[in-house]
Amino acid sequence: MVGQNIPRNDNNHQFLMLEVIFSVPCVCMSDLYRSSSNAGMAEFQEKLRLQHENSMHTELEKLLTSAKTPEAEISRKDFEGFKKLFHRFLQEKGPSVDWAKIQRPPEDSIQPYEKIKLKGLPADVASSLNKLAVVKLNGGLGTSMGCKGPKSLISVRNENTFLDLTVQQIEHLNKSYNADVPLVLMNSFNTDEDTKKILQKYTHHRVKIHTFNQSRYPRINKESLLPVATNIGLTGENEEAWYPPGHGDIYASFYNSGLLDKLIAEGKEFIFVSNIDNLGATVDLHILNHLVSQPSGKRCEFVMEVTDKTRADVKGGTLTQYDGKLRLLEIAQVPKAHVDEFKSVTKFKIFNTNNLWISLPAIKRLHEKNAMDMEIIVNPKTLDGGLNVIQLETAVGSAMKSFDNALGINVPRSRFLPVKTTSDLLLVMSNLYSMDAGSLTMSPKREFPSTPHVKLGSSFTKVRDFLKRFESIPDMLELDHLTVSGDVTFGKQVTVKGTVIIIANHGDRIDIPAGAMLENKIVSGNLRILDH
Predict the structure, then answer these.
(1) Is the Cβ–Cβ distance between 360 and 265 less than 8 Å?
(2) Do 277 and 152 touch, CB atoms closer than 8 A?
(3) pLDDT tens-digit series, residues 287-334
(4) Element (H, E) at 81
(5) Catalytic-role residue among 77, 131, 222, 420
(6) How many angstroms separate the CA atoms of 372 and 399, rounded?
């Protein structure tokens, strides 16, 4: 067999192994097999990695040739970031953390909010506010709630959208303190056009609004590890070929847009970053004061707001000590054998709200040194046609370990009020909350501060259907738990208290009459009302 040409198949390393073994006579076969198993395998994998990388670069260049000049320049910058991510993806295998190295954070690395608040506020709040810009992550669509266009344009309270409320909050700050806090929206290619049309209505508000776009990365065919896209366009066969690569892209996109340098030149020192659908993420003057009052040698460059974990939050990222640094640990990084431990409310007691305060000069320094260390999130998807693809993403909070003197602040639960579903929407539309200058606060009439648990069935998933099923939003001041399933409608001025479960079986319909008061009741298909 020596001297024969054995067929090469880069998808099957056994052929490579055979070629090595049978072309070297007079050597102990077991020793050779062992050494070639290690060296040959490593060499094969390195060749394969280089081949994948070269093929990807070739395809990206082809995509760029289909773009017009201004678009090509933007895409080239995007692709540089994508190439770095793809290179790391090919090199990294298995969980990105060594579970044995994970330790609880030191006591002083996560400060209670009350301790921060005890410092009080300076006489000149405006000078602190003038060092701040508010950044809202605005890349998501409202598709999960059955809406077209940017999620930020969904009405959530008294016909006000997420964006309306954000503008009202910042305008109120600027007017109250005679300050100049700008609003910055990080859009995606999915939301940019529609958002910019809407921004015209805020022209006469006392808030400067800037936008920049996060990158546009190509989805990767899971089998070939090549882009799905055939050209740079977003329509037709390429409609599903692109994705915004997670909010960790904020650092590079912000820098590339020129807006980072512009804000620094205007005297801004910090950004407050949050998801636009978190209605609890308002500018907190005490946290801001803590940041700007630090001595320059020990200046905290990154604050992550965390809050106490409940059973509903077991999948949320948590803070750990790892290799001497405070580090965000996400469930995707956890080895399978330790997932239950990660979800434990007793071991990991807090989770990341994704409300972050970050130093602008530090972002500039780390980006220019290519020192922003973020774990890769590999997000598998199946396209409408059935093609399996992967998206390489990063999370903004995972860069925490790259910043100096990073700190966690354990904030009240009220600073985490995300609206991800119509169940969340029902809560924020109800009398549980009162609204003042765009900010929602729990009604003082509610005797205990915890938020009720609401679970609406699939008939309520789309906002349009949800609104049709409520003639008016029920009184929920004394509610603990509400579950609704099936074809159910609510009349005007319904009150729900305690635990209420309403289940209409398939083919049945339940109409809760106007003025009904349900307290600790189970309502079933024939409208029998039972004590619970």
Answers:
(1) no
(2) yes
(3) 999 999 988 778 899 999 999 988 778 788 899 888 888 889 888 788
(4) helix 69-91
(5) 420
(6) 6
Residue 286 CA to residue 120 CA, distance in Å, equals 7
* Three-state helix/strand/coil letters over 430-459: CCCEEEECCEEEECCCCCCCCCCEEEECHH
Contact 418, 277 (CB under 8 A): yes
Residue-wise DSSP of 22-42: HTS-SS-HHHHHHHHHHHHHH
203: left (phi over 0), alpha (psi -120 to 50) or beta: alpha
Q: Phi and psi for 381 in degrees, rounded to 5?
A: -135, 155
**Residue 337 CA to chain centroid, in angstroms?**
25
Return the amino acid letter for 82: F
* Residue pointed to by tokens 């398939």: 506
For residue 305 the two structure tokens come to 């707001």
Q: Are 216 and 60 a contacting pair, CB within 8 Å?
A: no
What are 355-378's pLDDT values in tens digits? Answer: 999 999 999 999 999 999 898 988
How far apart, in Å, are the Cα atoms of 90 and each of 61, 150, 440, 469? Answer: 19, 33, 45, 50
CA 299/CA 436 separation, integer angstroms: 33
pTM above 0.90, yes or no: no
455 given a catalytic annotation:
no
Those residues with Cβ within 8 angstroms of residue 144's Cβ, 6 or more apart along the chain or in another chain = 420, 421
- DSSP letter, residue 46: H
SS3 162: helix
- CB–CB of 302/356 below 8 Å? yes
